[in-house]
Amino acid sequence: MLIEQVKLVSNNILARGIYAMELSAPGIAQSIQPGQFVNVLINATWSPLLRRPMSVASRQGDRIGLIYKVFGSGTATMAGWLPGQQVDLLGPLGNGWSAVDGSYPVLVGGGVGIAPILFLHDALDQAGREHHLIMGARDGEEHFLTHAPERHITLTTDNGTAGLEGTVVDGLKQVLNQVGSEPVTIFGCGPAPMLTALKNFANAHDLPCQLALEEMMGCGFGICQGCSVELKTKFGKDQPSYRERFQLVCLDGPVFWAHQLV
Ligand SMILES: Cc1cc2nc3c(=O)[nH]c(=O)nc-3n(C[C@H](O)[C@H](O)[C@H](O)COP(=O)(O)OP(=O)(O)OC[C@H]3O[C@@H](n4cnc5c(N)ncnc54)[C@H](O)[C@@H]3O)c2cc1C
Ligand code: FES
Questions:
Q1: What is the phi/psi pair of residue 218, to 5°?
Q2: pLDDT at 145
Q3: Distance 255 CA to ligand 2 centre (A)
Q4: Nearest Cα residue to 28 out of 4, 53, 55
Q5: Cα 54 to middle of ligand 1, angstroms
Q6: Closest approach atom of ligand 2 to CA 217
Q7: Which domains, and CATH codes, for the chain?
Q8: pTM of this prediction?
Q9: Which end of the chain is more exposed for a tag (fewer CB within 10 A), N or C?
Q10: How remote is the CA of residue 154 from the centroid of ligand 1, in Å?
């Protein structure tokens, strides 16, 4: 983990309210892994006070890419940054996705959860590993990929304006039907209701599933304890050590196995 002063290369709108930023960040790019994130300092005056966590969406040589949605003041400020701007980043942070051999990866992203999914998608492409990508959004204007099931890319929208009408779980059911009896592993990231739906579906069907959580965070590296998540332990609720039962999204995550999450 390092603090790096990096240079903004480009910052463009991708879809409604969603931006893609490219940064020249040689130090962080050298070791960042899919599923890890960086903490972005919004202002040298530390106002707003906290850094904003952003998953890395891509790496090309010395450059990393972020994909972010404007939510509040921090991300609105980021949307106004111009090429050449110096940006203070802390990273790489978090654990990243676990490699899974011998099963077919099905990647599921929605909302702001597309970034770590796209980084994994690129890594699997580069490794020549077949997989399926499912992206969900409320409507077609939030999508920037093309629905192409024949190329293993499925889009879903709540209102049917792009791809399949329905949620990512509807897309997942369709993909699983096509995959047949081959073992799969699901990798998911997105808004909390989507992650809950994915977790319930995966657990109900006994499917291995990794989820990248995007909890609210304070420090981003294990000091403030502001991002704890409760895990099932082998001892149940009565006896486990606190550290075993409550883990930190910033340090132990953001990626957890769905069957371990309470
Ligand atoms: C590990 C991790 C990775 C993330 N990766 C991305 C990413 O790749 N792209 C992206 O767009 N966002 C990502 N987020 C969420 C992002 O950090 C928040 O959207 C951002 O901090 C909001 O800052 P703000 O100042 O614009 O909004 P604030 O003014 O802080 O908040 C505005 C609103 O945004 C909501 N909000 C704030 N923080 C979060 C959060 N962590 N998750 C969901 N909603 C939030 C709040 O409900 C609040 O109402 C990630 C979060 C985590 C923890
Ligand atoms: S954000 Fe501070 S401990 Fe996780």
A1: -100, -90
A2: 87
A3: 14
A4: 4
A5: 8
A6: 1
A7: 2-93 (2.40.30.10), 104-260 (3.40.50.80)
A8: 0.94
A9: C
A10: 25
